[in-house]
Amino acid sequence: MIILLGAMIPVKEALETTGGADLIARTVLKIGTELPIWATLGIFLVTTVILSGVINNAATVVLMAPIGIRIADGLVASISPFLMTIAVSASCAFFTPIVYKIGKNGHPKLNLTDTQNRN
Asked: Which residue, among 60, 116, 112, 106, has the nearest Cα to 86 in the 3D structure?
């Protein structure tokens, strides 16, 4: 976990240096300027949850924080709601059935799945 987090820091730096974070932020801002701020936060939340399903939660926060800050600056809004959205949504991937086995198949010890479908 520590190695993964350490490996994501150069990726974050590369994302900022190459302009990738600005590109992503501008893309979200194109949509977000026409929507209310809560809808922009919702889009950002869903994006972060999807990314958190692919990589580690802490690595998702490292990658999404600069993007969230740029989006907040572009909307002339407070940075705090965007950072809190990142913090919460990076942990929400466990609610999806793709990431966590309990969500898809029920809890194995509690026998929450349909017993007729078992082999």
From this structure: 60
